[in-house]
What does this fold into?
Amino acid sequence: MSLELRGISVTLGHGDARVTVLDGLDATFAAGTATALVGPSGSGKSTLLAVAGALLRPDAGQVLLDGADLAALSERDRARARRERIGYMFQSGNLLGGLVVVDQLLAAASIAGRSHRQLRPRAEELLTELGLGHRLRHRADQLSGGERQRVALGRALLLEPALLLVDEPTAAVDRTQARALTELIVGTTAGRGCVTVIATHDPAVLAVADSAFDMAPSPPERLSA
Ligand SMILES: Nc1ncnc2c1ncn2[C@@H]1O[C@H](COP(=O)(O)OP(=O)(O)OP(=O)(O)O)[C@@H](O)[C@H]1O
It folds into this structure.
């Protein structure tokens, strides 16, 4: 299992707002490894996640998930890949305020056409693994920021994705929680053997992740003559 991006180019916007965000980008992400995607604001981290997650089709290049090119699939097959092979955990968690924790996972699974009855035991087990066994019947608005992020992680993992894409998971939590949450993501990635990519500005994430990919590496230092 791996994710390989080859020659990815993306231009966004029109007219004066046209920006080439990615220009022939190459990157490889290995299974069982959580990679921190770093780089200054505007360097294209979220865009890269959108391309990798089949949410945005690149203007050029290949997105090879286990060797099959997601960028070349029909819209229908891309939608299926999003449902069945990719888990997303985006900034604020985007939980549904009124639903209890276990139903947050099941609601997402039912959008993917899976039965609640079949998945409920797995959802409860997964939430327990994520340290939320005592919060299964809490509503999202009764949870702390870190707990909400763990629910969002559970939701992303329920259907055992090959690829887990995470955008700024620690934006709303303190340093201790940031470290704990990242350790959970890294440990889960190793345990499941999925490919995980985490866009982040947070040094705590960078410190815990298995590796880093820099969107804008600084130029090599010039040797003085
Ligand atoms: N629809 C759009 N039209 C034009 N430009 C866009 C559009 N969406 C994003 N951009 C530009 O593309 C660049 C990359 O954006 P992106 O969100 O991928 O960066 P980022 O590295 O994730 O930034 P941040 O760390 O601030 O979240 C930015 O300069 C942004 O202004």
About this structure: The chain has one domain: 2-12+22-214.
